Amino acid sequence: MAEPTTEPLVSFRSVHKAFGTYVAVKSLDLDIHRGEFIALMGPSGCGKTTTLRMLAGLEAPTSGAITIGGKVMNDVPPHQRDTPLVWQSLALFPFLSVVENVEFGLRMRGVAPKERRDRAMLWLERMQLKGFETRRIDQLSGGQRQRVALARSLVTEPEMLLLDEPLSALDAHLVIRMQGVLTRLQKELGITFVYVTHSQSEAFAMADRVVIMGNGEIAQIGRPQEIFRGPKSRFVAEFVGRNNILGGTVKGGVMETAQGAVPLPAARDGKAEIVVAADRVTVSGERPAGAAIRASFLSEEFAGTGIICYFETADGAEWKAQVTESQLASLQPESGQEFWLSWNADSAHVMGG
Amino acid sequence: MKALSGLGWIYLLALFTFIFAPIAASVIFSFNSDRFPTLPLGSFTTDWYVRAFSRAEVWTAIGNSLIVAAVTSVVSTFIGFATAYTDFRYGFKFKQAYLALALLPPTLPLVIMGLAMLAWLSQVGLSGTLTGIVIAHVVLATPFAMAICRLRLSQMDPSLEAAAWNLGAGQWAAMRHVILPFCAPAIVSALCLTAAVSFDEFIVAWFVSGLNRTVPVMILEILQGNVDPQINAIGTVVFLTSMSLVIAAQVLIFRRRRDG
């Protein structure tokens, strides 16, 4: 990974956070660079939200140090930081009008009424909310509220914006549109976005770098493509994408598995696990040459990009294969029917590498 | 919600008649020219009001009641709000005990409370003073104020306060610009309700008031002397005052809020 050479905007150094006996974050080391869109992603309870809240000063690390712009921030209270957060619930003030909500940060910083109104109006215009300034929050649609929340966070022109699952309450079609709004905004402003989500489609669609977290630790950091095609552990492979995992012992470019021997030229001898993405699996009735295993058909599911067929191997492992509609029509699979699942031996990713 | 059946309406009507008939009778007889409350009614008169409100002690009592109610409502609403906010904001050991203790006073028998207050206030030299009545009434009214404020705080998105900090508001600024505006309807409602609790309260006030009588205590003393419709006239005014306060409180709490 090509690291930018400038000093990072944010550094977590051995940051540990415990709530009583519950450890939310074990020992976090992470650099966030100026101007990058970084996504913290993981299942619930993985520590991603706690990490974000520590960055905003809403939680204090139990040990370790968090620096922003080279300054240790551990004991700086939230209101003395410039780390606006877009909340999952949006947390707009129901007793204030739209423009008063947007002004709030400027008002707390003692900006004169005239100037703060002007700056808030500029942001409302930028967020295509002109004409809504005197409305109450409950008179807005979900997408409009989202944009008010963004304007309210950005009006103080921060160096960094924190986002905590901001799209989770929106309808699917709005999510795609807001993803566009967010990525464009981030590029235009050139500021750092730290985006927490459990949704891999959101993280992979928008972020420059994705941090996969699990059980209070970083499981993998990388560009979306790197993580998607090269998961380092079983946890990441199962969490991102539709991956099939096969384990066995490699000897001389062949892996002995519970499903028989499969060629694996890339691996060194010894125990190994490989990941085969569902879109790289071919389903056929006859045994093809190369890497293939036998599995019985379970069911199919229509996904946006194709059809996912689910299979089960003799030892109970689930396999997924992505097929097109015409392939499905020619296969005519029935439940329990056995097929060969094959892949190009070079497209299998060896984990731990 | 299911609509009421015909029988349900009759039941409801009977219930309200049962509750309000004595009050209605009192109001009606306050405008009746006869000295004793008998049917048929005499002629319409406002004479009893004129007579009742030309007595100096009535005005003194009303003055006392108003002062006590006003001070009680402000003090108990302040304490009630602070108690509710503590509950909302902080988790701590023995929190359940803290809440139980805070809600305890209305469950005590009022006679016991009155006796205890009398004993304690005379120890500190406040028995028979308006300050003493205020202290006793604050103890009685604070749990109501706290309950109302707690209800409102429970409707608040817990992120709202943190959002204010996040946007540059310190603790006090967040209190002033977010928590208080959000709780404003509940606070006004608590002011009304605690004022009504104090204005109405008889038993404890009777124990601790001494010569500084409040309206309910004065009514009893007039009643002990002689029964005449002046009592009905004063009662009607007291009833209207209390009802207005309670209704105002109810409207503020249960108004269909669009921001809830």
Nutshell version of this structure?
The complex is a heterodimer of chains A (353) and B (260). In chain A, 26% of the residues lie in helices and 35% in strands.
Task: Report what the structure shows.
The complex is a heterodimer of chains A (353) and B (260). Chain A is an alpha+beta fold and 353 residues long. Chain A has 9 helices and 20 strands. Chain A has helices spanning 48-56, 98-108, 113-126, 142-154, 172-189, 200-206, 224-229, 234-239, 325-331; strands spanning 10-19, 22-32, 37-41, 63-68, 71-72, 85-86, 160-164, 192-197, 209-214, 217-222, 243-251, 254-257, 260-263, 270-277, 282-284, 291-303, 306-313, 318-323, 338-343, 349-350. In chain A, a hairpin with a 2-residue loop joins strand 16 and strand 17. Chain B has 11 helices and no strands. In chain B, helix 3 packs parallel to helix 6 (130-154) and helix 6 (130-154) crosses helix 8. Chain B starts with 5 loop residues before the first helix and ends in a 6-residue tail after the last helix. The relative contact order of chain B is 0.14. The A-B interface holds A 56-58, 77-79, 83-85, 87-89, 91, 93-96, 104-105, 107-109, 136-138, 152-153, 156 and B 157, 159-160, 162-170, 173-174, 177-178, 181-182, 184, 258-259.
